[in-house]
Amino acid sequence: MEIVNSSVSNASSNPRVIVVGLGAHGSSTTYQLAKRGITVTGIDQFHPPHSMGSSHGPSRVMRMAYKEGAGYVPMLRRSFDLWQELNDLYSEPSFHLTGGLFMGQPDGRAISGIHTASKAQNIDISIMTPDEVRRKYPSFNIPDEWEAIWDPKSGAIFPEIAITAHLDLAEKAGAELSFNEKIEKWSATPSGVTVTTSRKTYEADVLILTSGAWITEMLANLKIPFEIERVTLWMIEPRANRDFFQAGTFPNASFEIFEKYPLYMQADFGTGVKVALDHHGVTTDVKSINRNTTREDYVIWW
Ligand SMILES: Cc1cc2nc3c(=O)[nH]c(=O)nc-3n(C[C@H](O)[C@H](O)[C@H](O)COP(=O)(O)OP(=O)(O)OC[C@H]3O[C@@H](n4cnc5c(N)ncnc54)[C@H](O)[C@@H]3O)c2cc1C
User: Predicted confidence band at 14 (pLDDT cuts at 50, 70, 90)?
Assistant: First the structure.
């Protein structure tokens, strides 16, 4: 998320905020601002949830066992509470607690990264032996020399429900929402920001850019070296032992079989078992991205 012209001190006591992009990030931002009584307009070029950005599809992994760095953990703790709060507030759950099992060589990047983050932030995790894993989860026949870390606060986020919930609650809290309206340009002014869209021109105190992969267009003048990665996932129908993979039985799971990019899986919530690689996508941009499945998307498996 980029916050442009955060000179709120110049603004009135109730700054007028425009949020550009209402995917996972923008919809929650718009709700959190509206909830605090801030005058906020959320704008999207499409009608979210839609399939053109990053926040579509059946599920996403939420985890505390964060190999990427201890600095994320306070934000993860806060977001864990907010997901639970959202479930309490909305008729359909956006978050389902499954627990998570992260498996690999003890000195691999994933396992050692989780231990480093855990030591710094005292994350509530525990170790399972490979034998315990194989007995509790017969679908995971992991080698004896591997280590498995159990994260009780890992779960599945349903991103499309989350967007709908956040936008609904944002509107009820007083946010103005506008869909199928594209921001064409913006510029900072001495008192705030001017935003020109396909429909009209807005004046605001603060502009928040939650535009996902389109951020390169929104901040083209700033020459920030953003990298847009095309990431794919597979939804798989198990041919046998389907009950092993059902939500309620099957945790979020990752296996560090490729050195840099763990393979991860999520339970079947009704649309199949999610299997994906953490990153490993090609660098692209929103204009030329290939939105079809390619042979290269499968090659990594064989
Ligand atoms: C296959 C895949 C698997 C993933 N798995 C995980 C996971 O397991 N766990 C996890 O935490 N994360 C995961 N992620 C990442 C996560 O999904 C993204 O970080 C998140 O969805 C990004 O949301 P966003 O709101 O930033 O972007 P988006 O959802 O892309 O939203 C950006 C919005 O901005 C709008 N917009 C852009 N430009 C303009 C404009 N000029 N005018 C108006 N509107 C505009 C777009 O229309 C869009 O709706 C995964 C991503 C992918 C693709």
Answer: confident
Ligand 1 pocket residue status of 212, Cβ below 6 Å: yes
Token pair belonging to 281: 């996508």
Statement: residue 86 has pLDDT above 80: yes
User: Quick check: 7 pLDDT over 70?
Assistant: no
- Fold category of 97-155+229-299 in CATH: D-Amino Acid Oxidase; Chain A, domain 2 (3.30.9)
- How much helix, strand and coil, in percent to the nearest 5, is found in the chain? 30, 30, 45
| Element housing 130 (H / E) | helix 130-136
One-letter amino acid for residue 291 of the chain: R
Calculate how far, in angstroms, residue 2's C-alpha sits from the geometric centre of ligand 1: 14
Using CA positions, which residue lies closest to atom 41 of ligand 1? 183
Q: Tell me the per-residue pLDDT of 51-68, one tens digit each, with 9 for 90 and over.
A: 999 999 999 999 999 999
Q: Is the pTM of this model over 0.85?
A: yes
CATH of domain 2-54+160-222: 3.50.50.60
Question: For the chain, where are the alpha helices, taking DSSP H only?
Answer: 24-35, 73-89, 109-121, 130-136, 159-172, 215-218, 295-299
Task: Give me 4's structure tokens.
Answer: 């442009």
